[in-house]
């Protein structure tokens, strides 16, 4: 119920929002949903609004936020077109929710069942088998106490994940290089790419060397290809930086 979702401490721009509303900070997970929303806005004119959350203030641990997402993490998508408003947490779940409600022409998904399965497989691969490793690597390489076992473990697992993407994009076993992760032929830009790209583009923040990342030339080309999209530039730019 709406009267349970919002309380007096809920910011006005959240509880008075109309339509799709995203609570986010421009982290890798936030950027994935930001990108899809900007792509939908460019393609269909899909309207949405945002509230920028400063994680450093622990705003996401307050009761008003936890009512929207009990995990206390961003991003959170609230669909105020539903009655009562419907909150969605977990970035991959938010991507698929947006496909269902806003991607009517399957511009970022597929009509074909088998291609849809590929899309799901590659999204799940990154969500469950790659992103957690790179996230842990980022934590341990930045920590004051350097634990070599942890750094090496998560570094090697992340390199493995990059290698999986390289195998897919290079066409190593098919003889046909691809531009995107899912779909027939060279593939099509979809939420599978949108999910993985914010993480992979940050390889330098994960403290990989140029020599290490150059093992994956097709991945680097994929990173550059997606970075040129106008909606992507907006989604990772100043619009999502709190003043």
In short:
It contains eleven helices and four strands. With 243 residues, it is of the alpha+beta class. Strand 1, helix 3 and strand 2 (48-52) form a beta-alpha-beta unit.
List keywords for this structure.
243 residues, 4-stranded mixed beta sheet, 11 helices, 4 strands
Description:
By secondary structure, the protein is α+β, with helices and mostly antiparallel strands. It contains eleven helices and four strands; from the N terminus they run H-H-E-H-E-H-E-E-H-H-H-H-H-H-H. It has a four-stranded mixed sheet, covered by helices on one side. Strand 1 (20-24), helix 3 and strand 2 form a beta-alpha-beta unit. It is globular and about 55 Å long. The two termini are 33 Å apart.
How does the SSE layout of this entry go?
Elements: H1 2-5, H2 12-15, E1 20-24, H3 28-44, E2 48-52, H4 63-66, E3 76-79, E4 86-89, H5 91-102, H6 113-142, H7 148-170, H8 191-200, H9 210-213, H10 217-227, H11 230-235
Parallel strand pairs: 1-2
Antiparallel strand pairs: 1-3, 3-4
Helix pairs in contact: 3-5, 3-8, 6-7, 6-8, 7-10
Major beta sheet, specifics?
4 strands, mixed
**Strand order across the largest sheet:** 2-1-3-4
Task: Specify the overall morphology.
Answer: globular
Q: Give the mean pLDDT.
A: 96
Distance between the termini: 33 Å
Percentage beta strand: 5-15%
Considering DSSP H and I runs of 4 or more, what fraction of the residues is helical?
40-55%
What's the quaternary structure here? single chain
Element string (H = helix, E = strand): HHEHEHEEHHHHHHH
Contiguous runs where pLDDT drops below 50 for at least 5 residues = none
In total, the number of strands is 4
**Count of DSSP-assigned helices:** 11
Structural class: alpha+beta
Q: Calculate Rg over CA atoms.
A: 19 Å
């Amino acid at each position: 119920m709406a009267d349970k979702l919002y309380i007096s401490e809920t910011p006005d721009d959240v509880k008075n929002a109309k339509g799709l509303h995203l609570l986010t900070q421009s982290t890798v997970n936030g950027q994935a949903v930001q990108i899809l929303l900007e792509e939908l806005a460019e393609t269909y004119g899909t309207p949405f609004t945002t509230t920028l959350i400063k994680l450093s203030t622990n705003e996401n641990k307050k009761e008003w936020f936890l009512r929207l997402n009990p995990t206390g993490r961003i991003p959170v998508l609230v669909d105020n077109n539903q009655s009562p408003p419907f909150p969605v947490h977990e970035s991959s779940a938010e991507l698929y929710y947006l496909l269902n409600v806003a991607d009517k022409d399957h511009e970022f998904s597929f009509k074909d069942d088998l291609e849809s399965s590929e899309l799901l497989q590659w999204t799940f691969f990154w969500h469950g088998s790659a992103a957690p490793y790179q996230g842990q690597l980022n934590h341990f390489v930045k920590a004051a106490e350097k634990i070599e076992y942890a750094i090496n473990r998560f570094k090697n697992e992340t390199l493995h994940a990059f290698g999986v993407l390289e195998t897919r994009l290079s066409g190593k076993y098919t003889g046909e290089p691809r531009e995107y992760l899912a779909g027939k032929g060279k593939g099509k830009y979809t939420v599978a790419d949108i999910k993985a790209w914010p993480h992979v583009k940050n390889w330098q923040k994960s403290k990989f060397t140029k020599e290490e990342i150059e093992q994956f030339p097709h991945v680097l080309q994929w990173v550059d290809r997606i970075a040129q999209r106008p909606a992507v530039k907006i989604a990772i730019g100043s619009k999502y930086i709190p003043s």
